[in-house]
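Changelog note: in this version the structure field was regenerated for every chain. One regenerated record is shown below for reference.
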Amino acid sequence: MKDLLNLRKDREVGVALSDIFSFIGQSGKPFGKILLYLVAPFYLLSSLASGWGQYQIVNSVGDISTMIDPDDIFEIYASLPWFSIGLGMLLQVLASAVMTSCIFLFIRTYEKNFHNEANGLEKAKEITVKDISSELWGHVAWVFGFTLIWLMMLFIASMFFFIPGIFLGTATSLLFAVYFIEQKGFSESMSRSMELVRNNWWRTFGFWVLLFAVFWVFNLIISLPITIMGGEEALLGATGITAIIVVIIQTITIFISSMLYVVFTVGSAIWYYSLVEKKEAVSLEHKIGSIGGKYNEDMFR
């Protein structure tokens, strides 16, 4: 492998954003293989379901004039293809769980390789698909469940003018980084994330806002094909071959957009390591500096 990137260091927001893409670029081929063989099939399936669901939604809205009472909001909601919508959402969460698990298992192995190489213990070897898949399926179910619980909590919190949801989402944004890297349970990971973000909430919020802006630009670029075709107008009344083409374009657009979420997962790992070093490497120096002085039992907790 190429020279490995030191993940465990304190970073400013700009450096953290740069290191996300440095890590992805430096990891290159092995990282890409893992995404291609283990993650892409799940996102392709979920994107196909979501693309078909969107096609059905737009067409059901297009047929609203044929309803007995188009002003009845309950009738409108009842007419939506909820099975397709629900299936697409569940498959998206499953694909997200697979991606999250793959990336953090990769990062955990990567960080171990860096430590061994830096200490002259072992030359770093290329991380293979087999290395990740051997541990993957034992984590996916847990991450899937954690994601559903976490999203439900954020949804409930967001019902109060969004502000509590934004606060909680930012404070617990390192949930999965803690789960994989520190190997803690759900409640412990939530608490640990809040502990790391405490006193760094605005920096963390700014980091996610800027990363989302970068994601939005890339997503806008890859969404141009569906825009060129006329957006929702291309979906309305589409039948036969036209409908199939529209669904395929929707699927490809959703697939590429979903795969771009890799930057958020890698970003949470980079930011986790940054906050750990910022908050705890300094305290470690203080503890070491106090050796030989007055005994403090907190040093050993």
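Spot check on this record: Residues 13-300 form one domain. The chain has one domain: 13-300.
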